[in-house]
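Supplementary Methods, section 5.1.

A reviewer requested that the exact input to the structure prediction be made available. We therefore reproduce it here, unchanged from the version used in the analyses.
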Amino acid sequence: MSLTFTLDPAVTPALRDGVLTLWTDVSNAGGAVGFVAPVTAEVIRPELVKHMAAMAEGRIRLLVGTDESGDVAATAFFSFNTHRLMKHWVWLYTVMVHPSHQGRGYGRDLLAAAADEARRFDGIDAIRLTCRGGHGLEHFYGSCGYKEVGRVPAAIRVAPGDDRDDITMLLPLD
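The structure derived from this sequence is encoded cell-by-cell as follows.
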C-alpha cells in the first residue's frame, strides 16, 4: 500500500475535514505541527481557515497524500516568498503523516513528492523548513537530504520550563 499524492486538490468539505482531522490527530500524538496536545479540532480550525484562504489567494499550495480509501493521510504546505531577493526558494511546513500510517515510509514519500513538485515550480532552487527540537526531526529530515543550516536555541516554548530549539533545514533542488 502506498499513498497517492496530489498538488492543489479541489477544496471540498471532505478535504477540509480530512486535513483538520489529520492535524488534530498528529498534534494529539505529540507531533510538532504548531500545537501542543491536548488540542481539539476547534482550536486548530482557525489556523486551517487561514491556510485555506491563502490557498485561494495563491500564496500557499497544498500537497495531500491519500490512502487507498481516499482518506487524507499526509500533507505538506508550500509557501512562496514575496521578498524579491528570496523568490528562488519555498517554505515547506505543516508536514504531517497520520499516526496510524507512521513507520511505513510515508514521511519519506511525502518529502520526495514535495521535492518533485517544487522542482516543477518556476524558478525554485531549494526548499526550506523548520522543525522543533527535541523530537529528532532534524535527523529524519537529514536522512531525506535536508541539511541543517540554522538553529535558534530555546526559541519555541512548548510549556513553562520546556523550551525547544527552532531548527532550519534546507534541501537544494539541483
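The helical segments are 13-28, 41-56, 106-120, 137-143. These observations are discussed further in the main text.
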